[in-house]
Amino acid sequence: MTTSRAQRSLPVDGRDDEVARLEQENAQLRQAVDSHARIDQAIGVLVAVYRLEPAAGFEVLREVSQHTNMKLHSVAATVLDWALREESLPPPVDQELQAALGRHLRAGDGAKPE
Description:
By secondary structure, the protein is mainly α.
């Protein structure tokens, strides 16, 4: 007696389209999670190095993003590269980061002493 492996028939009624849509959505969600993690890590760098409140760290990243016309996740990646590899920041990012830090530190957004 021989057994044959019949090819599995493809789903019907648009299920292929649904599977493809779900795979794409899954990939987008994974990318979003990675992006958010990178942003949170960059906020942590700003909190640790400049003693900012976390909310102020996010605002600093957001301002740098807006003033340099870079995506927020790209600014965060640049800050992480700077922190981890001791690379200098690109001049536009460095200038805007210093300006934003100055505004927030003058506004009293630094960490409160215990």
